[in-house]
Amino acid sequence: MTKAMKTQLFIDNLTMIFNPQALFSDGTPLYRIPSEPQVNDLVKIRFRSGRENVDSVYLVCGNDRQLMVKISNDRLFDYYEGKIQLGTEKIEYYFEVHSGQIVCYYNSVGVCSGVEPYYNFFITPSYSTPDWAKGAIFYQIYVDRFYNGDRSNDVEKDEYVYIGEGTDRVTDWFKYPAAMGVREFYGGDIAGIMKKLDYLQKLGVDAIYLNPVFVSPSNHKYDIQDYDYIDPHFGKIIKDEGEVIRRGSNGELICEYNHPNKSATRYICRVTDKENLEASNELFVQFVTEVHKRGMKVILDGVFNHCGSFNKWFDRECIYENAEGYGKGAFIAGDSPYRSFFKFNDDKWPYNTNYDGWWGHDTLPKLNYEESPELFNYIMRIARKWVSPPYNVDGWRLDVAADLGNTPEYNHYFWQEFRRNVKEANPNAIILAEHYGDPTDWLRGGQWDTVMNYDAFMEPVTWFLTGVEKHSDEYRGDLLGNADAFFGSMRHFMTRFGTQSLQVAMNELSNHDHSRFLTRTNRRVGRTATLGPDAANEGIDKAVFRLAVMMQMTWPGAPTIYYGDEAGLCGWTDPDNRRTYPWGREDNELIEYHRELIRIHKDYQVLKTGSILFLNGEYQLISYGRFDDNDRVVVVINSSEETRTLNIPVWRLGMVDNSYMARLMITNRDGYSDEARLYTLENNMLYVECPPVSGVIIKDFKNQV
């Protein structure tokens, strides 16, 4: 070092006897090499400290306490390296830091005064997630409500009976879903999605996640009737014979009381005739092929914990009882080939009504894997079938995945085998699960790739920006704008993921199970049955919604847009959150805002796979940074109604005096703008003035460190 450099270094560290904020490590490629190691790999682990600010750093892995070697430095930081020899099992590690008389520890939540094993870093050998999914833009489609591309396949009025009443064909696309709207059908289908692929591609979508599309009687289709075929009401109806259920002069359904769908001959033809089923599968092949041509992926929803009472294996509705080419359902006959697929509690056949349903629902028979190798093998075949030619889908989203089976041990066994089958058939397929709570037991490398990210994204963001719970069932003023609670939740729950799982986690603001985020900005508690659907549109705050979208597009994980959110769609929790996409009534400014943020997200790899640091936190004001070896990005969110000023310690990202940063995007009460603004750093800090209800993305203008 020259004398001038030594003098500058002395000045930089003059008041910093020990600077814990300079300490850093994580599981990204800068600090773990390779970041997704294989069995028996030798892994380099790196750690950062302030320049000449610590005496020694130890890498502690099990009983091994290894003195790390300083391998490099820059103006701000020293970098240390140690090595871990992997075997076949998961390992854990943390860092022990010595600076004078001070000893502290560093783990996945940061600096700690003692060893906290719960927060140790960990590595699971040979556990990787698909690179294409890291930071990918997912778009979730509830098919019946997206776009009607083929009216000939629409569910007819009274085509069949579902939960005690005839089906309803909705002819007003913009009608709000009824409180008991599960049997309402608007006509959205695969052909409709195909006609809107230009829109999705222009928006910047990388992967289309479809709510269930297999043969099922409900509009949500989480009560699967036939896992082997796309529902002809979403696909193609070639043969269309039979009648809908007739009504009497007083409007009553004319059908057998206990088994009304024996009279649903048109429905029986539509969903059991192989000509319709094969044509629908062929249309789906065409759909996936076209999506792939555009550089996008397709994810299917897998409902394997339970099926529906209409299911061909069960057949409580007597749909298949006399259909050609089908065996007797287990509900129909005690000698059914599918009897072991379900748990019956007595031997009262025919029409045995005493069986196990998921959470007691008789419309959702629980699948009995433990006592049925045949069922297990069938579902493993399904797992492989749809990710293999000719269908070639790119992964599965797993419904209520932790509920499958009757014991935790079997649940984990099932998902291990599911992963093995899927990855053998398509190594680049993603496996992501619906899960509430700690997913650690399933994210150990042999089961799921990741989860729908409620705990480490949706919930902290909605509490901080709206104070409203994700169903709009509770308001918490103590969490509204609470930066400590926000960062505390994020810091804790993000540690439950390995880096490879966090980078592909589904970061949603809304979905089919929760109220629309835009509705939550009204800070009201309510549901469509109590306040009515119009109330979901009242008092909303698009400026706050834009803040949420900015966070979604800059946070680690895969930003997942629930269809219509980008167009300004509102709605209480289900079924009101399942409104139709507002074609012709879109909020085009919101769509363009999403498009611009998606462009920024895609332009900079740092927003997909870079490290994250929490930089500032005050009431209704937060900032955080993303960084890798190429770029540094700062995001500031001011959710208050006041102009706020902030000095941001961007030196923690590696930025120094006289460096420049440029604004990429700002949103506030007046709208949004991508007009650039240049910032000059002083004292290694970034000074930012934030208008009321504003968010800003700022990036290093030139890497000068």
Give a verbal description of the structure.
By secondary structure, this protein is an alpha+beta fold. Among the domains are: 124 residues, Immunoglobulin-like (Sandwich), CATH 2.60.40.10; 90 residues, Sandwich (Immunoglobulin-like). It has 15 helices and 33 strands. Helix 6 runs parallel beside helix 7, helix 8 runs antiparallel to helix 9 and helix 8 runs antiparallel to helix 13. The radius of gyration is 28 Å and the shape is globular.
Short description:
With about 700 residues, the protein is an alpha+beta fold. Helix 8 runs antiparallel to helix 13 (about 540-550).
List the helices and strands and how they pair.
Elements: H1 3-12, E1 32-33, E2 42-50, E3 56-61, E4 64-67, E5 69-73, E6 77-85, E7 91-99, E8 102-107, E9 110-112, E10 121-123, E11 138-141, E12 161-162, E13 165-166, E14 168-169, E15 184-185, H2 190-195, H3 197-203, E16 207-210, E17 214-215, E18 226-230, H4 265-272, H5 274-293, E19 297-302, H6 373-385, E20 395-398, H7 408-425, E21 430-433, E22 450-451, H8 454-466, H9 483-494, H10 499-502, E23 506-508, H11 517-520, H12 528-531, H13 542-552, E24 558-562, H14 588-603, H15 606-609, E25 611-618, E26 621-627, E27 632-638, E28 644-648, E29 660-668, E30 671-673, E31 678-680, E32 686-690, E33 694-700
Helix pairs in contact: 6-7, 8-9, 8-13
* N/C terminus separation: 16 Å
Assigned CATH superfamily of the domain at 3-126: Immunoglobulins
Rounded radius of gyration (Å): 28 Å
Q: Largest beta sheet, briefly?
A: 8 strands, parallel
- Label the overall shape: globular
Instruction: Tell me the total number of β-strands.
Output: 33
Query: Kindly state the mean pLDDT as a whole number?
Result: 96
Q: Which secondary-structure class do the elements indicate?
A: alpha+beta
CATH structural class of the domain at 3-126: Mainly Beta
Share of residues in helices: 10-25%
Might you state the CATH topology name of the domain at 3-126? Immunoglobulin-like
Under the CATH scheme, the architecture of the domain at 3-126 is Sandwich
Unreliable segments of 5+ consecutive residues: none
H/I helix tally: 15
Strand content: 15-25%
Identify the strand order in the major beta sheet. Answer: 22-21-20-19-16-11-24-23
